[in-house]
Amino acid sequence: MTFVLIPGAWMGAWSWHPVARHLREQGHGVVALTMPGLSYGDSPAGLKMADAVDHIVHEIDRRDLRDVVLVAHSWGGYPATGAAHRRPGRIAKVIYYSAVVPAPGVGMADENAGYGEAIRASIAATPDGTVALPLQAIQAGLMAGESPELQQLVAGLILPQPGGYMVEALDVPPVTAIGLPAAYLLGADDRSLARPGEEFAGRLGLDPVVVGGSHMALLSRPAEIAEAVIAAA
User: Fold this and answer.
1) DSSP letters of 121-156?
2) Burial of 172 (C-beta count, 10 Å sphere; 0-12/13-18/19+)
3) 92 phi/psi in degrees, rounded to 5
4) Minimal CA–CA distance to 12: which of 31, 39, 30?
5) Which of 5, 29, 186, 231 is most buried (CB neighbours < 10 A)?
């Protein structure tokens, strides 16, 4: 199988590297992507959801990938869903891991009122219209229960999220509505999702498969998450 791994907000391909290593060691093809604006040297200003979707589609086309298992973490459910609609003939399955399954016309900022208020306030306060992620949010939510050392490491790796990625919506139905197979993996200790994971899985007509760890167990439990991804594929 060829796995194309899509990171969550503030993250790059690096967030998937520990899982990718396990997948590669078991003989699978792996491509881990970083969305535009989330690498040093990229500008996050003015980026829109379409830019992230276009990037995934471009990489699938450029590498001539087929029978792709598209794996999305967290916010990555948005561009992964958009890309799956653009290239359904190249996608074998979409796996959402503690991810948002987008509802048509609903952006990340509108999935949760509290999150939306913080997202829009950050966009308004920054000159490049980005969304910051403070260490406290990592400690209390994103990586609750993880080691302080790993929390600090992630805090030093993340970059501000382009605001357009957080407020713009997709106007497409869930991938299962167009006949694509899907699976939903949910971290047992996840405290970061905008809605309960069961609700997101329900948008696909599925029940979640519970896996161990926090929202960021792809870093703290990579072997376990890799095995869950392979089993779901």
Assistant:
1) HHHHHSTT-EE---HHHIIIIITTTS-HHHHHHHHH
2) middle
3) -85, -35
4) 39
5) 5
How far is the C-alpha of 65 from the C-alpha of 232, rounded, in Å? 20
d(CA 71, CA 129): 27
- Strand-pairing partners, residue 131, are 161
DSSP letters, 166-206, are HH----S--GGGGT--EEEEEETT----SS-HHHHHHHTT-
Digit-coded pLDDT (tens) for 65-104: 999 999 999 999 999 999 999 999 999 999 999 999 999 9
* DSSP category for residue 98: S
State the Cα–Cα distance between residues 185 and 8, nearest whole angstrom. 14
Q: How many CB atoms lie within 10 A of CB 111?
A: 18
**Encoded tokens for 221:** 């439990």
In the chain, the domains with their CATH numbers are 2-232 (3.40.50.1820)
Reported as a pLDDT band with limits 50, 70 and 90, residue 130 is very high
User: How buried is 83 (Cβ within 10 angstroms: 0-12 exposed, 13-18 middle, 19+ buried)?
Assistant: buried
User: Residue 176's beta-bridge partner residues?
Assistant: none
Q: What is the CA radius of gyration of the chain?
A: 16
